[in-house]
Amino acid sequence: MTTLYPGRSLNLSNIEEGDDVYFECAIKANPWVYKIVWLHEGHELRHNVSAGIIISNQSLVLQKIARMASGNYYCVASNIEGDDTPVCRPGQMMYHGAARFEQVNIPCHLDAHPKPLAFTWTFNNSGESVEIPKSHIRVLGTYSTVSYTPNTELDYGTLLCWGTNAVGKQKQPCIFHVFPAGIPDPVHNCSVYNLSVDIVHVRCSAGFDGGLTQTFILELYESHTNKLLANTTNIIPKFSVPGLPPGMSFTGVIYSTNAKGKGEQISLPVYTIKDMAERRTGKKLITLNLSRKE
C-alpha cells in the first residue's frame, strides 16, 4: 500500500508559482518494494535536476514550480508479489517463410510487469539448441526482434524467445517456426471442361505453394492477335471466363503467385464451340498437352 503525503512544513493552500514542493511516498509492503514510480496526471516523472524534478528514494521534490505543475500526483510502488515474469502476447505471427540466404526479422512481443530487462533467443532443430548471438537481437521496450538467415536445410526449425524481468525469467518461451519459402511450382494436369459457345472453363491441379499462401491467375489471349481478353484470379486453380465469341480459339496462360513472387507460366490452347450442335457430336477437349511459356 502507498500513501502520498506533502512535506510536513508544506501548506498546500498557500502554494504559489516559483515555490518548491516536497512529497513523500509512505509505503507498507512485505516483501519490500524494488521500484517506486512517480506520476503527474498519469504521466511518469523522471529524475531531471535541470528541469527541477528531483527523485530520491521515497521522496519527490519539485523546484520553482510553474502553473503547468498543478494537478494530481501519485506514487506507485512494486514488489515481487504484485508482479510476475513475462508471458507471450497473444495474436502474434508464429510462422515465417524464408528462402535460403534470405534474412527475416521476427518480433517477439511480451506482456510483462515490470518490463523485461533482457531477451534471450535460441534456435532448435532436431533436439539441438543454439543461442542466437546478441549482435542479431534488438530490444525495444516490451518486445525484441531477431534477424535470422537460414543458409542450409538444417537452419529451418524453431526459434524460441524468452524475456527476463526483475521477478525472473519467462516460464514458457514464445515459439516461432521458420520454414522454407519460395515462389510456387507451376500448375499441372490442366483440362478444359463443359464446352460452351461463349464460356471457357479451365481447371488444373495446384503445384507446391512455396510454403506460403498462393493465388492462381488465368490470362486469356486471342490466338491470332495475341490480344488479352480476360484476366481472372482465384484461390483455387479453377476458372470460368464468360462473354466470349463462339467458334474462336484462344491461348490460356495459367500461373500462381505468393508473397515471394510469380511461379512459372503454363500455356494451353482453348476454344469456344460454334453452336450447341457441335457439342452434341462429342467433340470436347478433356486433357491437354501443356507447354511452358517462356
From TrEMBL:
This is Ig-like domain-containing protein. Residues 6-79 form the Ig-like domain. It comes from Halocaridina rubra (Hawaiian red shrimp). It holds the Pfam family Ig_3. The lineage of its organism: Eukaryota, Metazoa, Ecdysozoa, Arthropoda, Crustacea. SMART domains: IGc2 (SM00408).
